Fold this sequence. Notes:
The complex is a heterodimer.
Chain A: E1 9-12, E2 18-23, E3 33-37, E4 44-47, E5 61-66, E6 69-74, E7 83-91, E8 97-100, E9 104-108
Parallel strand pairs in A: 1-9
Antiparallel strand pairs in A: 2-6, 3-4, 3-7, 5-6, 7-8, 7-9
Chain B: E1 3-7, E2 10-12, E3 18-25, E4 33-39, E5 45-51, E6 58-60, E7 68-73, E8 78-83, E9 92-102, E10 107-113, E11 117-121
Parallel strand pairs in B: 2-11
Antiparallel strand pairs in B: 1-3, 3-8, 4-5, 4-9, 5-6, 7-8, 9-10, 9-11
Amino acid sequence: SYVLTQPPSVSVAPGQTARITCGGNNIGSKSVHWYQQKPGQAPVLVVYDDSDRPSGIPERFSGSNSGNTATLTISRVEAGDEADYYCQVWDSSSDHSGVFGGGTKLTVL
Amino acid sequence: EVQLVESGGGLVKPGGSLRLSCAASGFTFSSYSMNWVRQAPGKGLEWVSSISSSSSYIYYADSVKGRFTISRDNAKNSLYLQMNSLRAEDTAVYYCARGVVVVPAALYYFDYWGQGTLVTVSS
């Protein structure tokens, strides 16, 4: 089965840029989606299809995907961005299945 | 406004059964695939199961295959998850999520989520 690897934690000062990576074998050939989850809340989609943003998501959130790494970039980080972030792909190689990364805790210092 | 409201969670003994429901509103339910995603306490997200808009395609995670059954009733705008032979490791918050699918691109993501319902499997 397909595996997505994320760093457990990333820390950044307010106003700086946070980059959260998601590693997978040839992930650049897949569409990657990102979710933000704050404590006690349901996940929220922040980036889909590598780099598109749903309506209502600030332009500060962007994504890229190439080779074996996809990246969620959060510019001008705010205190309210502190949350867990998960990457996700759909693995249609054999048994179709959804796959999530292990999640990254973003701490705003 | 898209709304997904889960229900049916609770405390169940190992080996027991539970049926989760998800009531959908604010969109044309019959046009979307639907999904269950769970999250064990303090852990990450785990995809559980997906069902296409007309129930033609159904997929399960290996961890629940043969024990869980996903279904939907488009006339009632409802999604279900029948969970049998429950184990302690099935303890989690279960989220209902709407799916967006683009087949040629193998693109599949979850654009709206419910607030979840907690399932606790314990003796």
